[in-house]
Amino acid sequence: MSAHDFSFVFLAFLILSTGLQLWLKTRHLRHVLAHRAAVPADFASDIELAAHQKAADYTAAKVQLARWVICWEAIVLLAFTFGGGLGWLDAIAHSLAGSGIWAGILLIGGLTAISTFLSMPFSLYSTFVLEEQFGFNKTTPKTFLLDLIKSTVLGIVLGLPLVALVLWLMNVAGSLWWFYAWAAWVAFGLSLMAVYPTFIAPLFNKFTPLSDASLKERIDNLLAKCGFESNGVFVMDGSKRSSHGNAYFTGFGKTKRIVFFDTLIERLTPVEIEAVLAHELGHYKRRHIVKRMVVMYGLGLLTLALLGYLKNASWFYAGLGVAVPSTAAALTLFFLALPVFTFPFGWLSSRGSRKREYEADEYAASVSSADALISGLVKLYRDNASTLTPDPLHSLFYDSHPPAALRVAALRQG
User: Which domain holds residue 197?
Assistant: First the structure.
């Protein structure tokens, strides 16, 4: 393939991907607003019209922001590629650090810093304007700044050694460097899963053991029934940043722990909390996490193998606006361009995710209460201002969970 041909293919996919995203967002906006006037019949007895309209307006505001973000990200990508931005950064990195690994680290670090800076206005608007407007934001400017600092430090402490190792392997490990890099990535990911609950998550939130004795007894009984061993049940101060509620379990092996947002504990009854937890346990019992990891790492291996091929293709660099090939340029160009080619197929991932959610719901109904799970989900839909009327096609591409109406209907049918 020539550089000119690859430039044309990349630009065609960029137009396709960007246009598809904007079209889906516009469909979603129109569909939600068209159903704003009335609560769907299945939810009319549990969700008042004002809450339904708030969810519609909240969804509309997020969609309108998302459309701007999509356009801006396409412009930034063009600036880094055809505009020569990445080649310019690479030249600066080499002038400062020569041609070794440090030049590559400077390139990747500089690209990350610039990308973060360029996306910051949207993050600030989302947190302090949009979320504030609908009564969800609890984040203070101080917390926002501290989160940014902590994330940056963590990125340096954890990410820099991995990036350095990958760059080193790309230079010295021969034609199979991509396999060794994949093995390093897998080891890093599994290690991160093990240490995240006890060393990383507490840097951002406070986790306290569940103090409600009766609720803890109910949860312990459910865990015993499901054969799930955890390192504890904790309540997280999610209200520190947002009034949204959630629950999850995290960790790996003996570090597994169950986490409830304090906002969820406040809003749901004990039987509803049990049912929501049963759903999360359903993912574990149906081996969804293991299956997802196998798929993720399998796709990662194929992705790095493709990069192994493109690393030595001069048309790959020239076609994306980089005149002088380098190891770090190959790595950054590849992961800049990859989403352009993969988004049109993203519905496959979402489809699989929604299937797993149905299976987890089915499991929860078998060990807990389907009615309690439905009532808990309805409260979460209402309190989180989640739209009950998403556009089906938009949902197919973007939503990891089934639409509320389909999910509740499946639970009622048993």
Answer: 1-414
- List strands edge to edge, sheet with 233-236: 207-209, 233-236, 257-261, 247-250
Residues 141 and 193: their CA atoms lie apart, in Å, by: 29
Task: Give the 3-state secondary structure of residue 249.
Answer: strand
Phi, psi of 249 (to 5 degrees): -125, 150
Count of structural domains, the chain: 1
Distance CA 395, CA 295 (A): 22
Residues taking part in catalysis = 280, 361
CB distance 201 to 238 below 8 Å: no
Beta bridge partners of residue 33, listed in sequence order: none
Q: Quick one: what percent of the chain has pLDDT higher than 70?
A: 99
- Give CA–CA dist 259/201, Å, rounded: 11
Task: Give tens-digit pLDDT for 322-377.
Answer: 988 889 999 999 999 999 999 999 898 899 999 999 999 999 999 999 999 999 99
Which tens digit of pLDDT belongs to each residue from 8-63? 999 999 999 999 999 999 999 999 999 999 999 989 999 999 999 999 999 999 99
Provide the sign of the torsion angle of the four alpha carbons 196, 199, 200, 206, taken in this order.
Answer: positive
d(CA 207, CA 234): 6
What is the distance between the alpha carbons of residues 384 and 219, in angstroms, rounded to a whole number?
24
| Whether the model pTM is above 0.85 | yes
Which residues lie below 8 Å from residue 301, measured CB to CB, with a gap of 6+?
179, 182
3-state secondary structure 258-291: EEEEHHHHHHCCHHHHHHHHHHHHHHHHCCHHHH
